[in-house]
Predict the 3D structure of the following.
Amino acid sequence: MTLSRRLALGGVAACAVGALQRPARASTSRLRLSGAYGDALFHGRNLRAFASQAASLSRGSLDIEVVPDGRLKPMDQVLPALQRQELAFGEVLMSACASQHALLGIDALPFIVRSFEDAQHLWEATREAVQQQLGERGVRVLYAVPWPAQGLFCRHPVGRLQDLKGLRLRVYDETTQRLAELVGAHAVTVAAADLPRAVADGRLDAMFTSSSTGVDCQAWSSMSTFIDLRAWIPKNMVCASDAVWRGLPDPARAALLQAARQAESSGWQLARQADEAAKQQLTAHRMTVEPPSAELRRPLDLMGERFGRETAHKAGMDYTRALLAYYTRRG
Ligand code: PCA
C-alpha cells in the first residue's frame, strides 16, 4: 500500500518517515484532513475551499480530502495523531487542546477579547509561541479562523450571575468548565455535534457558544434568549503533521502555504458574516438577542481577571509573555 493511501485511510500503523522523504515526484498525494465540525458551517466550507485551493495551486499534485465532524479523529486525538504521522492534516478548537498544551488555553481566556479586531491582535501576539510549542511536538500550524464571539443561550432570562446557580450549563472546554464551577452551575459536557439533540430534548438550561452554533443546533427549540456577552472569540486551528510536511516537494509546500494564507483571510471574513446572519436568524425564530445587563457584566469582568491569574500560574512564561504582547498590541 502506498504511503499516501495509508495516510488517506488514517491507518493507525505509523507510516515510515523515510518513505515521505524521497525526492519529489510528480504524482498526486492524496491526504486526509480531519475536520472537527459539521460540513454546513462556515468553518467546513472554508476547509473545503482550502483543500481545493491547495489542489489548484499545486496543479493537482495535492489532493486533500476533508472528513468532517471528527469522524476521522476525535478532536482531542488530532494533535497527537499529527505528531505520530497517523494523520496528514487536522482541525482543532485551540482551547479544547489546552490540557495538552496549556498555552492554547489563552484562546478562550474570558472577558479580555471583545471584538474580531481584539481577536486578531491576540492571534498576532500568540501565533509565534503557538507555532514554536507545537513545532516541538511535530505539528505545523497552517492557519487559524475564529468563531463568532461566545455568548450565553438560556431558557429563561439571566440578569444576574446568581441566576446561573444550579442550572444545567453546557460546557465544551476547560474555560467553560471552570466558569460553570465558579457560578455554581451543573456542568454538562456536550460536543457541538450532539447539541441539536441535547437542546431539543431539553437537557440544558443554558449554554455557552456562538450565535452560529446556536443556529446550527436550533437553540430556539428550547431556549428563549441569547445574551451577547462577547465573552471570548475562540479559534479553530488547521495544522499539518510536520513529518508529512517535510516529505512534500517544495512546490506542494508553497501551494499549501498560499492556500493557508487565503483560508485564514477568507475565514475571518466569513466569521463576521456568519455572526451577523446568525443573529438575524435567531431573531427571526423569535429569540431575544440582547447585551448583558450591567449587573451580569460586572462580576463576569472580575472573573476574567481571575482567569488570567489562574491560567498564567498554570501555563507559565510563554503564556504570560503572549498575554502581555496582546495588551501591548491592543493598546
Ligand atoms: N462553537 C463550538 C466551539 C465554539 C463555538 O462557537 C461549540 O460550541 O462547541
